[in-house]
């Protein structure tokens, strides 16, 4: 028998988007890619990389919490960069959220992200 899948959707996720914020199956939580959009809107927070990254990481933290996990339970993150020149600046913000906990991570340059975002981040956590 397979484990049931539980779906979690943050109120900040625009209702027109056809996906959830996180899915929990067994003792794993998979968080959808998060960008720095305004709550409930298809518009980025103003100010560029730093506010976008902080908002995306905040959404990731909230999605984890909704599924019963937390940042210290993250085992893998993938960060999608619109411009790899943002790599070091993003690392500083990322470290503020994760502290001494350092999950496995990949950073990938992409041709474009939703809404013209600078970064998008997803993760997998264990309960």
Index terms:
single chain, 127 residues, alpha+beta, six-stranded mixed beta sheet, globular
- The structure class reads alpha+beta
Low confidence ranges: none
Q: How widely separated are the two ends?
A: 20 Å
Shape: globular
Helix coverage percent? 10-25%
Give the rounded overall mean pLDDT.
97
Structure description:
There is one protein chain. This protein is an alpha+beta fold and 127 residues long. Helices cover 24% and strands 29% of the residues. It has two helices and six strands; from the N terminus they run E-E-E-H-E-H-E-E. It has helices at residues 49-66, 87-98, and strands at residues 5-8, 22-25, 28-34, 74-81, 104-109, 119-126. Strands 1-2-3-6-4-5 form a six-stranded mixed β-sheet, covered by helices on one side. Strand 2 (22-25) and strand 3 (28-34) form a beta hairpin. Helix 1 runs parallel beside helix 2. The longest helix has 18 residues, at 49-66. The protein starts with a strand and ends with a strand. The model has no long low-confidence stretch (mean pLDDT 97).
